Amino acid sequence: MRNGPTRPRTGGSTADQATVRRHNLSVVLSHLRDHGPRSRARLAGETGLNKATVSSLVAELVDRGLVGEGETERATVGRPGQIIRLDGEHVVAVGAEVNVGYLSVLALNLRGQVVARQRIALDTTALEPALVLARLARLLDSALVGVTARPVGVAIAVPGLVEADTGVVRAAPNLGWTDIPVVAEISRLLGEPPYPVLLDNEANLAALAEVEAQGLDRGGDLILLTAAAGVGSGIVVGGRLLRGAQGFAGEVGHMRVRDDGPPCACGRTGCWEAAVGLNALLAAAPEHEPARTSAHEPEHDPLPDLERRLADIGERAAAGDERVLAAIADIDRWLTIGAGILVNAFNPHLLVLGGYFAALRPWIAGSLREELRGHVFARDIGGTRVAFSPLGFSGPVRGGASQILDRVFRDPVLVEPVDKPLAQEETV
Amino acid sequence: MRNGPTRPRTGGSTADQATVRRHNLSVVLSHLRDHGPRSRARLAGETGLNKATVSSLVAELVDRGLVGEGETERATVGRPGQIIRLDGEHVVAVGAEVNVGYLSVLALNLRGQVVARQRIALDTTALEPALVLARLARLLDSALVGVTARPVGVAIAVPGLVEADTGVVRAAPNLGWTDIPVVAEISRLLGEPPYPVLLDNEANLAALAEVEAQGLDRGGDLILLTAAAGVGSGIVVGGRLLRGAQGFAGEVGHMRVRDDGPPCACGRTGCWEAAVGLNALLAAAPEHEPARTSAHEPEHDPLPDLERRLADIGERAAAGDERVLAAIADIDRWLTIGAGILVNAFNPHLLVLGGYFAALRPWIAGSLREELRGHVFARDIGGTRVAFSPLGFSGPVRGGASQILDRVFRDPVLVEPVDKPLAQEETV
């Protein structure tokens, strides 16, 4: 896989013809993603390309391991020609995440199906960034060890301000990171792989995953609230991420929403994060058996600390623990106040509660719209739909992998033909 | 002037050629706006159009009263050909505003120069909407009575939720208006004019005026805070207005920023508007001689009530009136808190304080950035530039007129040839 300009292996000889062909490869591949498997004849009819061109394009996509010929399905018996479908075998797109208390990796095949997923508890805030990244590289290796498909890219999510073009994390306060060259380091650790390694903010990537999961209309506006130790948001306006002047858009955790309240990690008082972050909940409803992750925790721990703690809180709430229920009610109150501020300012088509907020669903879903109504000026909260994320804590890795897939759908020639590496091996 | 498809008077005969010509008319007219007067030869060189085409396009633009031949300027003596410049005589674009306590009209010529301006104090909240609109129509007539140029459109600004496509004000709580068909009514009162009558939210139009006044980069993000009785904002993201799901984006006056505070006109407690609106200032620093506008106030009142009140407050603050200074300090505090929330969420390139906030500049400008720093997570408030609006209360009418001009620059054939009405009169 490469990033630069590419000559297609078949097709026209001029630059213009090559550009048109690349575009048409994208049209056919995206059509199969958006409309499902179908015959060459149907692809030609629906895309407006002629049949000979479609056959040639499909041949190239097969060659690159992006589509395959499936058996004729029962439902379509009698239709002429074989069914072309997205290939689920040859390529994978990888999302990775570094966050407070855990590392996470997820790989999607071209059909958007999860083919690998690993997460480990790790006290990322206590370890040196270089050690954290070394563990992430090993996790990437181990997650992909049983996967025969070729990676076509890795996108890394970090909770903080990133510089996408240089691949440097400028500031991730909850990790204690400043100016860490994540992309350069991971690329080195992976042995300078032939695929791209990208970097973005975790809330931004999670918001993109949510656009897909919620089926947001093209050009729509969405706010995803993410919450663990920190609280942030990924904001999509007109179908595109809102990044702002220096990439700080969506730093809603530090909106000042109250006069008092517990001190925030940022040193201020009154921050939304201090009122609704996971630490606020844990402080108000301390655990029965305090347990903390440590750098020495066994790496094969199957259940990250975060989810264990949430499960504990959920069990106690379900059992009617007054202290836990009161703590959740307090989170709910401030969550609605902050969400109301954002809905007043953005009037988004969709507000999605993600991260640990989604785990509070059983206790807050019932009253949420009614409470929001109290804080939003527009009648019936301005038509904003409220949803809970179905993605748990996998939003950032899923969004990262989706971004990588999106690159492939936009320009399929970024993926080298399948047999090339094998052929080279054979000649050695 | 008309809105529908138009055949150019010269040029190609097919639909495609007509489209290309309309586009090229826009290119030439916009080039003159953006780069100033210049010769046909230079226009051709800079736009890439051939000289014969430019001559034909210029002839049509002259015909429509949009450009004229100026004298050759001293600085350019020796250059071949005459200088073409935007016409300042033949057409005007009109902005109008209905707001609490006043009506306002402003007309710009094609060069963006103010050619007419009128404002009257009127107790718009006490009068029937139909009477307010009748007064607005008369104000439009009287403002344009000495103007010989033809209006090419009127844009009406209202503080509330408008439906641009139907021309109906859905809800303007500070005026007490619900479902008022403003465009239909004004069009009727003006005798169904040949030019379009448009409607938009006042903060939105003021934000567009600010994009121009502040020289915001193309594709930049800007938040304009407007304040009088109500507090609102116009938000520009990527160079375009953020409208949201139902047009309610920017309703920041009702962000809940505090637990207590005075009750808001909307019935809630803790709204930003109740903390920083003009009424909060006036309540904390009551006037020496209470004076209220009434529907029976003489219409030739040269100075609307709002500006008189602000001047009074300014004088007392300058004289060191402790009560007024304390009231301003309190406004300043809550203004910075609310602005900090928005800067955290949007990280805009530019935050503009408009409306009556701009009148507080002498007392708040010095400390504003420093105070904002205390409420914004990103280092040095994320690179957001803070500015005060230079437009006073004329932002909405100026933005409205600019929107009308923008339509003309985008499609000059919307403006009928100049001599057409005269020729028709002669044949009568």
UniProtKB/TrEMBL annotation, chains A, B:
Signal sequence region: none
A single GO molecular function term of this UniProt record: kinase activity
Protein name: Putative NBD/HSP70 family sugar kinase
Gene3D superfamilies attached to this UniProt entry: 3.30.420.40, Winged helix-like DNA-binding domain superfamily/Winged helix DNA-binding domain (1.10.10.10)
Start and end residues of each HTH marR-type domain: 28-67
This protein's UniProt keywords: Kinase, Transferase
Similarity field: Belongs to the ROK (NagC/XylR) family.
